[in-house]
Amino acid sequence: MNTGRIIAAVAVLALVSGCASTPRVKEDPSFAPVKPKAAAEPQRATGAIYQARSRPASTRPLFEDAIAQGVGDLLTIRLVEQTEASKEASTTTGKSQEIGLESPTVFGREVTDDGTPILSGSVGAERDFDGNGESSQSNSLEGEITVTVAEVMANGNLVVRGEKILSLNQGDEYVRFSGIVRPEDIQPDNTVLSTKVANPRIAYGGSGVIDDANSMGWLARFFNSAIWPF
Predict the structure, then answer these.
(1) Which residue of 82, 146, 167, 220 is 20 to 30 Å from 61, comparing CA positions?
(2) Average pLDDT of the chain?
(3) Does 6 reside within a domain?
(4) pTM surpassing 0.70?
(5) Burial of 200 by CB count in 10 Å (0-12 exposed, 13-18 middle, 19+ buried)?
(6) Which pLDDT does position 229 carry in this prediction?
(7) Average pLDDT of 17-30?
(8) What is the spatial distance between Cα 166 and Cα 146, in angstroms, rounded to a whole number?
(9) What pLDDT sits at residue 66?
(10) Looking at the DSSP assignment, which residues form a beta bridge with residue 109?
(11) What region, left, alpha or beta, does residue 153 occupy, with left being phi > 0 and alpha being psi -120 to 50 degrees?
């Protein structure tokens, strides 16, 4: 075998193996973690009895709950999503119509051609439509994901976001979550149910060999698309 071909084959194999080792799922900046704000500089003494002090973001008072309350704090979301939907529709229509035209008479006699009336006729039309449709869908998602507080709203609610990417042998999987959490719904163990989160955005997907096997090919997608006339 030619040496040049051997080198080219080795280069192709190295390129393929390198591509296979790199993650297929890219991080989404909209779900990136948020770092806590730097602590403000301590205020100078003014001579008053009470002196306001600013504490670092990494410290908490002794009797304060260790739950998320500031930008950059961690919060665990318990995913307990389950949805079911069904829809059924049936439509039946029908229409029939008939128009008749008798042969007119001229001077008391019908207009004929060799005894056959030529000015009489009738028009009839009939159409029917029968359509049925049924759709059902069921989804379930359970698990946990730890997110960070991205913003503290004026009313005290927390805007959280985060993602989890798992690189497996046959592909990658990711879970992304964002929403608004009310501090009252946070449990003492710093967790909150996903059903208690307002405006939730949950994304679950993956890529790799298994995902490719479950995906429809481009030709099959064309025949199943709305532009296919038949």
Answers:
(1) 146
(2) 77
(3) no
(4) no
(5) middle
(6) 63
(7) 61
(8) 14
(9) 78
(10) 106
(11) beta
160: left (phi over 0), alpha (psi -120 to 50) or beta: beta
Residue 162 carries which side chain, given as an amino acid letter?
G
Pseudo-torsion of CA 102, 103, 106, 109, nearest 10°? -110
Q: What is the pLDDT of residue 64?
A: 59
Alpha helices in the chain, H assignment, sequence order: 3-21, 209-213, 218-223
pLDDT of residue 99: 78
Instruction: Please check whether residue 228 lies inside any domain of the structure.
Output: no
Q: What is the DSSP-derived secondary structure letter of residue 118?
A: S
Q: Which domain holds residue 120?
A: 88-134
Which of these, 201, 200, 197, lies nearest to 157 by C-alpha position?
197
Q: Which of 21, 6, 28, 9 is nearest to 202 (CA)?
A: 28
Does the pLDDT at position 51 exceed 70? no
Kindly tell me if the per-residue pLDDT of 223 is higher than 80: no
Looking at per-residue confidence, does 179 or 139 come out higher? 179
The span from the CA of 205 to the CA of 93, in Å, is 43
Burial class of residue 175 (count of CB atoms within 10 Å of its CB; 0-12, 13-18, 19+): buried
* Number of domains the chain contains: 1
Q: Give per-residue pLDDT as tens, 107-150.
A: 667 777 776 776 666 777 888 878 888 888 888 889 999 999 99
How far is residue 152's CA from residue 159's CA, in Å, rounded to a whole number?
A: 6
CA 49 to chain centre: 57
The DSSP bridge partners found for residue 51 are none
111: in domain: yes
